Automatic annotation (TrEMBL):
Keyword Mitochondrion: no
Top-level taxon of origin: Bacteria
Organism expressing this protein natively: Shewanella aestuarii
Localization per record: Cytoplasm
Signal peptide, first to last residue: none
Name the UniProt record assigns to this protein: 33 kDa chaperonin
Annotated family: Belongs to the HSP33 family.
Disulfide bond positions: C225-C227, C258-C261
Entry-linked HAMAP family: HslO
Alphabetical keyword list: Chaperone, Cytoplasm, Disulfide bond, Redox-active center, Zinc
Role this protein plays: Redox regulated molecular chaperone. Protects both thermally unfolding and oxidatively damaged proteins from irreversible aggregation. Plays an important role in the bacterial defense system toward oxidative stress.
Post-translational modifications: Under oxidizing conditions two disulfide bonds are formed involving the reactive cysteines. Under reducing conditions zinc is bound to the reactive cysteines and the protein is inactive.
Length: 286
C-alpha cells in the first residue's frame, strides 16, 4: 500500500462525509528529531493523524496548529500543518514515561489548543480540556463545541505507522443525515491493523460494502520544516548586540538548533558582524 496519503469520501445516500489518513514516512521524520519515549511516539502519531484530518476540513489557504499543553511529564506536544498537508511536529518531556502511559498520565491537567491561521482573514483559536480518555474523544468534543456537527474520530499509532478516520455530518436539513448513526457504528469497527495494512479503497469496502461511497483522489501528506539559516539569523538579531558579542567571546560561536528537525545553525564572528551590519571588531583601525 502507499503511505502518507489522505483520502476524502462521501456517501451518495447520506449527508455524511469521511476522511482516512495513513502515515509512515512523514511520521518517522517527525520522530527522528528526538529520542522520544514510546508513549510520546504514539501520542505524536495520533496528533499528526488528527492534524491531517482537521486540515482537510478547513476551507482556506493557511496554517493549522494542534497543540497539547499540560503540567505532567509531557509539557508540550504540537503538530503544525497547512492546507497542502505539509506537517512538522515536536514534543517536550521530562523524566521517565511508561510505554503504556495514558493521555492524562503524560499531560496531567492540560488542554488542547487548535489554531487556524488563514493567509487572509482572522485567526481562530479553539481550546478544549484534556479530560477525556483519549485524544480522539477530545477532538470530538472540539467539533461538538465549535462546529456543532456530529463527528466521530478514530486515531491509531504504533511508533512506525499512524492512521486515522473522521466521519462527520454535513450541514443539511435533509433527513439523509439520519444515517449518520448507522455509518458511525460501522466506522467504529475499524481496527488499527486494517488501517496500517490495507489501501483506503479496501478499508472503505470492508466498512461500507453495502453503501454507495464516492472516494476522491488522495492528497499526499509530507514533512517539511520551515527553519532556515535566515530565520535563525533574524532571531539572533532580536537579541542585544552586546549580549551576543559576550556569548561569542565566551563560546567562540553562536549555535541555534531547530526543535522540530534538530538541524544546528552555527554563526561565527564574521557571521554575527554581518547580521548586525557592522565590521568585525578587529577591523576598526583605518
Amino acid at each position: 500500500m502507499t503511505h502518507d496519503m489522505l483520502h476524502r469520501y462521501l456517501f451518495d445516500d447520506a449527508d455524511v462525509r469521511g476522511e482516512v489518513v495513513q502515515l509512515q514516512d512523514c511520521y518517522q521524520q517527525v520522530l527522528s528529531a528526538h529520542d522520544y519515549p514510546l508513549a510520546v511516539q504514539h501520542l505524536l502519531g495520533e496528533l499528526m493523524a488528527a492534524t491531517s484530518l482537521l486540515t482537510a476540513t478547513i476551507k482556506f489557504t493557511g496554517d493549522i496548529s494542534v497543540q497539547l499543553q499540560g503540567d505532567g511529564p509531557v509539557s508540550l506536544a504540537v503538530i503544525n500543518g497547512n492546507n497542502k498537508q505539509v506537517m512538522r511536529g515536536v514534543s517536550r518531556w521530562d523524566g521517565a514515561i511508561a510505554d503504556d502511559a495514558s493521555l492524562q498520565q503524560m499531560l496531567g491537567k492540560g488542554y488542547m489548543v487548535i489554531t487556524l491561521t488563514p493567509d487572509e482573514g482572522e485567526r481562530y483559536q479553539g481550546i478544549v480540556s484534556l479530560d477525556h480518555p483519549n485524544l480522539a474523544a477530545c477532538l470530538e468534543e472540539y467539533f461538538n463545541q465549535s462546529e456543532q456537527l456530529p463527528t466521530q474520530i478514530q486515531l491509531f499509532a504504533n511508533g512506525k505507522q499512524a492512521a486515522g478516520m473522521l466521519l462527520q455530518v454535513l450541514p443539511s436539513k435533509s433527513a439523509k443525515n439520519e444515517d449518520y448513526e448507522h455509518l458511525s457504528t460501522l466506522t467504529a469497527t475499524i481496527k488499527a491493523e486494517e488501517l496500517y495494512t490495507l489501501d483506503a479503497e479496501q478499508v472503505l469496502h470492508r466498512l461500507y460494502h453495502q453503501e454507495q461511497v464516492r472516494l476522491f483522489d488522495p492528497v499526499d501528506v509530507t514533512f517539511k520544516c520551515s527553519c532556515s539559516r535566515e530565520r535563525s539569523a533574524a532571531a539572533i538579531r532580536t537579541i542585544s548586540q552586546a549580549e551576543v558579542e559576550q556569548i561569542l567571546a565566551e563560546e567562540g560561536k553562536i549555535e541555534m538548533g531547530c526543535e522540530y528537525c534538530s538541524v544546528m545553525y552555527t554563526f561565527d564572528g564574521i557571521d554575527i558582524a554581518s547580521i548586525y551590519a557592522i565590521s568585525p571588531s578587529n577591523d576598526t583601525a583605518q
